[in-house]
Specification:
The protein is of the alpha/beta class. It is built from 13 helices and eight strands.
């Protein structure tokens, strides 16, 4: 067995973000291939008071407000849990964590700079996270593969590397749920900057819950400037489901998340007058600008487009295929 070339912190600081991400993909691959066992979650559960304190301090210093609209969990401890949340902006992760109010492993795509900052230290050592790279950096290669175009040897190697990393991430999530741990996943893959209440979703949450014999708990979040309103639904017990049920469970999950968001939106009886409203185009642009103004670390609209669920039936993708004659 070839040993892994573990790097010191001083060495990691000298790497570019691309080199850093590649290093951790290779590390995850090495540890997976060598069956490295999961670290215990018991310590993180015991120090959860630190997580609560850090989240509270972060909320206060960032000037945002958290409102828990409702919480319908019955908190059955007999199984692991997949918390599946809508993705609405910069602080929805922290807001969901604080509203859940128990230790969860956050499923983090493309950690990049967080490998060497306090956010990464907090998530790795206090809260808990599961990392994977989505592959948005090689979106053109994924497009070629999706369209059955031939890849070069270098392109195929990169495609396989990212696909394996995503597989390892999902398998790690499944093992956590089998271990009766909790994970938090944002099933849309990227911030929702579309007019949809909830975007089309990846099937991962359903597969993880099925293979991990766990519950799914849907979460709907509405962002109103710096106020995040969180609505937690009741557990979806999918015992007896098989992988053939994945699409149906994902559809049901999305419907529940839409309903949770709707409960928040339609609870407010204040309706803007027609004079206060802009055109649909103006409203959509203002909505996107409001979300993106808090974006950090190169999280751009292009990144969002390349990390959200690829819906082949979405108009923009249908038109793209028509133009290519596919």
């Amino acid at each position: 067995m070839v040993d892994f070339d573990y790097k010191k912190l001083s060495e990691l600081k000298k790497l570019s973000l691309d080199e850093l991400s590649a290093y951790y993909r290779q590390l995850r691959s090495f540890e997976y291939d060598n069956n490295k066992p999961l670290k215990t979650s018991e310590i993180k559960k015991k120090i959860y008071f630190l997580t609560k304190l850090i989240l509270k301090i972060d909320r206060i210093t960032s000037g945002r407000k958290l409102v828990v609209f409702d919480d319908n969990r019955f908190m059955d401890k007999s199984k692991g849990v997949v918390y599946a949340s809508t993705h609405v902006g910069r602080y929805d992760i922290e807001s969901a964590m604080e509203a859940i109010n128990e230790q969860v492993y956050f499923v983090m795509g493309d950690p990049e700079e967080t490998y060497r900052n306090f956010e990464g230290f907090f998530l790795d050592n206090i809260q808990g996270r599961i990392c994977l790279d989505t592959g948005y950096q090689i979106a053109d290669i994924f497009d070629k593969k999706r369209n059955n175009e031939e890849l070069s040897l270098k392109e195929q190697a990169l495609y396989d590397e990212y696909k394996k990393d995503r597989f390892i991430g999902e398998d790690t999530c499944t093992k956590r749920v089998l271990n009766k741990d909790k994970i938090l996943i944002f099933t849309e893959g990227a911030w929702n900057i579309t007019p949809r209440i909830v975007q089309p979703m990846f099937d991962g949450a359903a597969r993880i819950a099925i293979n991990g014999n766990g519950f799914i708990v849907p979460i709907g979040i509405v962002r109103d400037n710096k106020k995040y309103i969180v609505n937690i639904g009741s557990e979806m017990d999918i015992e007896g489901a098989t992988l053939s049920d994945t699409k149906d469970i994902t559809k049901e999950l999305r419907e529940k998340m839409c309903a949770l968001v709707g409960e928040i939106v339609f609870d407010d009886d204040k309706v803007n007058s027609r004079a206060e409203m802009g055109t649909p185009e103006e409203n959509e642009l203002a909505f996107i600008n409001d979300i993106m103004r808090e974006s950090e670390n190169g999280y751009t609209i292009d990144v969002i487009k390349n990390t959200r669920y690829y819906d082949k039936n979405a108009p923009e993708n249908v038109f793209k295929l028509v133009r290519k004659g596919l």
